[in-house]
Amino acid sequence: VTHSIPACIGSVTINSKQLDNESPVSIFAVNKCYVTVQDGTFFDGSGFAALVREGYKVRSDVNITLEFRTTAAHGVLLGISSAKVDAIGLEIVNGKVLFHVNNGAGRLTATYEPRGTNSLCDGKWHKLQANKSKHHISLIIDGNLVQTDNPYIQSTSADTNNPIYVGGYPADVKQNCLTSKSSFHGCLRNLVLTKGQQAELFDFSRAFDLRGVFPHSCPGAEH
């Protein structure tokens, strides 16, 4: 067995002596146990998950769906960026959700701003769908649609061949369609990227790089 167990372990005794797990000599990728847990992946606000090491090609069309839960007003949700300007990005900035796309001719943004006292940062689950279809982009949050006009109608393809960064990204990685550097703090689940009829559900435990991310469970409520 070469991987860690996704579980809580407590009250370990060796030769009748209980181990002190409150002050370990060293610790790596171990979080505290929660009284109540939910399905999903917990991001502690310090890092990111990196998926598809060989590179993800956005090209002309992609549909992204995910659910998020947070109490923070800022945080990167997802970024795929080429070394040029072509890129897509999803982020929470000042409690708004922004979906950015650059097909090479310029950045385009769809912004969802919750109305009145409604908040996306209330610690409850919210459903997000971000769609890029050639030069059209749209954002649906909890069933509310936002679309934006695109003056760059000749430019239709985001030519990326780069990893998908979720919840943040390394300092040495360029992200052309993200304005925030803040790592996401909260929970994500059901991340699906669909191209045509092909839908891919991403399992964070299979990420090639995980920092500050706990893929198997979320605390039942933010502490």
TrEMBL record:
SMART domains listed in its UniProt record: LamG (SM00282)
Domain Laminin G: 38-218
InterPro entries: ConA-like_dom_sf, Laminin_G, Neurexin-related_CASP
Domain of life: Eukaryota
Protein name as catalogued: LAMA1 protein
Organism: Chionis minor
